[in-house]
Amino acid sequence: MTMTKTTIDFFFDLSSPWTFLAFNNVQPILAETGAQVRWRPFLVGGVFNAVNPRVYEMRADPEQKAMKRSFGWLKEWAQAAGLPMNFPSPHHPVKSVNAMRCACVLEADQPALFRFADAAFRAYFGEARNIDDPAELAAIADAIGLDGADLLRRAGEQPAKDALRANTDEAIARGAFGSPTIFVPDGKGGETMYFGNDQLPLVRERLKTANQG
User: Fold this and answer.
1) Which DSSP state fits 43?
2) CA geometry: angle at 129 spanning 73 and 99, to 5°?
């Protein structure tokens, strides 16, 4: 009897440094557990506006101890993962609407979406490039073998706008309050939600349990 592989939903926004970490750190977990993933682009700002506006209060005071320490921990996490982390950059906080609409254009082609997201994450967090700039987004797409001009054209059309809104609304309805948000099905019609890079060990254990069941 062939066991059906568990498929997780990984909701992400390219502007989030912790999501950059989790996007990479979840991959060996998927390989180990045999789980599959659906990369789900959404707009984390829309989530904050709807259910977690306190994030903006914290950002308004970058000198507070918690915020300053979080940047230090972020760079330690990046070093542990072997990832570049040139953050915060001059473009922080970056507007991600253009980038996430591009991601939504690619959502039906998951391998292409993965390549674009990986390249965009590294451009923003590794090279401090402005992923709100359409020219930068086109260059990122071109560099991985996509047609950047066509991607930007499609990202500006109504279907991409509607898809980003629908994904964001779906994530909120399922309980999301930030990025990344990961949903692991339990095989019985339910699911467990996890948030952030630091909860990936819990994702791993949940996936191992799901595959045993």
Assistant:
1) -
2) 95
Q: Which residue, 177, 168, 198, 164, is CA-closest to 77?
A: 198
Which domain range does residue 163 map to? 10-205
Kindly state whether residue 212 falls inside one of the protein's structural domains: no
Answer whether 182's CB lies under 8 Å from 193's CB: yes
CATH number at residue 192: 3.40.30.10
Residue 147, in any domain of the structure: yes
Calculate the alpha carbon distances from 134 to 6, 65, 95, 146, 164 in Å. Answer: 36, 35, 12, 14, 17
In the structure encoding, which two tokens stand for residue 186, read together?
A: 């339990």
Instruction: Assess if residue 15 is contained within a domain.
Output: yes
Report pLDDT digits (tens) over 86-97: 998 999 889 999
Q: How many domains does the chain have?
A: 1
Residue 139 · residue 100 · CB < 8 Å: no
| CA torsion angle 25 29 34 37 (round to 10) | -40
- pTM, entire model: 0.91
* Placement of tokens 């309980």 in the chain: 175
* β-pair type (181-185, 191-195): antiparallel
- In this structure, of 3-17, 132-146, 188-202, the range with the lowest mean pLDDT score is 3-17
